Amino acid sequence: MLPAGVLAGRAARSQRRDVIGAARWWFRGRKCAGTFARPPAPDGNDRRRYHVTSSSCELRLCARNGIASPAVKGYCSSSSGGGGRSKIQPFLLADIGEGIKEVTVKEWYVKVGDRVSEFDDICEVESDKATVTITSRYAGVVTKVYCETGCMARVGSVLVDIEVEEDGETVVVAAAEDAEQRAAADELVAPEATTANYQARDNEGKVLTTPAVRRIAAEKGIDLTAVRGTGKQGRVLKEDLLGPELSTPAPVVAAAVGSPQTTEAGDQDFIPLTGYSKIMRNTMEASNKIPTMVITDEVNLTRLVELKTQMSPWLKVTILPFLVKATSLALTRHPLLNSTPSPDFSSYRPNRSHNIGVAIDTPLGLVVPNIKNVQTLSLVDLVRSMAQLRTKAENGKLTPADVTGGTFTLSNMGTIMGSTLTPKILPPELAIGALGQMKYRPRYDSQERLVRTPVMNVSWAADHRILDGATVARFFKDWKTYVENPSLILANVEL
Predict the structure, then answer these.
(1) Residue with the larger pLDDT of the pair 317 and 418
(2) What is the pLDDT of residue 362?
(3) pLDDT reading at 244 higher than 80
């Protein structure tokens, strides 16, 4: 046994000493706050490494079925002596996107006592309409978790405390491994991991997943205990619920005869806002303080519908990409609407990039990612970019870059319902457009004949602190010209 807290002597890098059979170790004369003791004969299936640093002696054991062998218990024990050095490092929530001040913690991947390495996943958070995985910047042991699942965390606040080693040299003692032992270690299977029980569960036996996934499962009538979790440590993800074989309605249980169902009178429990809904509340509170002007008019879509029909054999497209591109062309002529105001609204900065946000309805709520640099995209490129954003949004894979940096927004809630909409501006943007539902109405054509015509009501809301009504009206007039003459959009013509 080596003296407690001391790795005896200084040896050349090539010097070797046998500890257990064929096990070998190299050391460079460092102090250690621990002791080594000769262990009993190791189990045949054990595969172990003993790490000695300046602050601790740590055992890492990998045994068949993941069960620690009694042969190694107590082999490496801590001691208060020896001058070991460690510190508690607060792990702060960094700024993850432009303008994002707080996030919701959706899921934790670590708990107190877990050892993490750099770039290991710590938790998953939901920011301003995006889901982000937070990774560790430190290697060490988690000593405290500051935020429960579902709570709000502000940028700069502490998520966890991690005990890290200061200037620790690592000495490795590795048990001899033959080919059979290595093969056994590669085939580790937990005893509980059977086909009848393949989800991660908490201490109460509940399937581990996020509240959003539980809500989707409840809406679809899916039993989470019957779902194979593909997330970290067997967690059930939203993607696991998308299979058609899982979309079965919940069984209906008939009420027993003579036992009528009754509902107790009284107040119901409040359901807290989470995720996109909570972020929407904060955004709309800020939007409500904006002095807003709104202008609305009808747009004739006859030529646009005809062009879309002609293109359909080669390009599957809705009318929305045309409307987005028309917005970019009109913004080129009226850049003030694509500007960002200073904090005190005494000045503004025109944005060269047309990053146009489009609202997308998802199972988790309404989200507004933006298409970057629309002014540089062809119609085909724009269609592809919008399709990619929609796929990411529906699968909850949007990144902070997808939802930040927007300069202008189009709301297309008319695809659900609504002839005329009054949109709310999303600060710090200065304007937003709202597209009503396309409907066929009787209208007079150029020859004064009454014809069935596709029309749409469109509204534009603008921040009256920077934009005046005449500027917005001229923008609307140019936008309407592009939409009613879509060949100008294809030719990318500036009016």
Answers:
(1) 317
(2) 80
(3) no
Residues 173 and 310 in one domain: no
pLDDT digits (tens, 9 = 90+) for 263-297: 455 567 887 776 667 677 777 888 888 999 999 99
**242 dihedral zone (left: phi>0; alpha: psi -120 to 50; beta):** alpha
Residues 172 and 107 in one domain: no
Mean pLDDT of the 75-91 span: 60
From 423, 184, 92, 455, select the one nearest 287 (Cα to Cα). 423
Let me know the angle formed at the C-alpha of 257 by 252 and 258, rounded to the nearest 5 degrees: 130
User: Two tokens at 368?
Assistant: 């507004």
Q: Are residues 433 and 371 in the same domain?
A: yes
| Number of domains within the chain | 3
The reply to whether 43 and 100 lie within a common domain is no
For residues 407 and 309, state if they share a domain: yes
Neighbours of 33 (CB within 10 A): 21
- Tell me which of 8-22, 266-280, 370-384 is least confident: 8-22
The catalytic residues are 464, 468
Q: Give the pair of three-digit tokens for residue 306.
A: 């005809």
Contacts of 271-277 with CB under 8 Å at 24 or more apart are 272/150, 274/104, 274/150, 274/211, 274/212, 275/104, 275/106, 275/126, 275/212, 275/364, 275/365, 276/126, 276/129, 276/364, 276/365, 276/366, 276/367, 277/365
Q: pLDDT tens digits, residue range 308-355?
A: 999 988 888 899 999 999 999 999 999 999 999 999 999 999 999 999
- DSSP classification of residue 202: -
Q: Which pairing describes strands 408-411 and 431-435: parallel, antiparallel, or unpaired?
A: parallel
The conformation of residue 95, written as its DSSP 8-state character, comes to -
Judged on CB neighbours under 10 Å (0-12, 13-18, 19+), 106 is buried
Is there a domain that residue 314 lies in?
A: yes
Q: What is the pTM (predicted TM-score) of this model?
A: 0.56
Per the CB < 8 A criterion, the answer to whether 474 and 334 are in contact is yes
Shared domain for 180 and 324, answered yes or no, is no
Could you tell me the residue range of the domain that residue 342 belongs to? Answer: 287-491
Rounded Cα gap, residues 135 and 404, in angstroms = 20
In a domain? residue 428? yes
How much is the pLDDT for 366?
82
89 close to 161: Cβ distance less than 8 angstroms: yes
- Residue type at 145 in one-letter notation: V
Let me know if residue 332 belongs to a domain. Answer: yes
- Percent of the chain clearing pLDDT 90 (strictly above): 38
Give the pair of three-digit tokens for residue 446. 């150029």
Same domain? For 81 and 94 the reply is: no
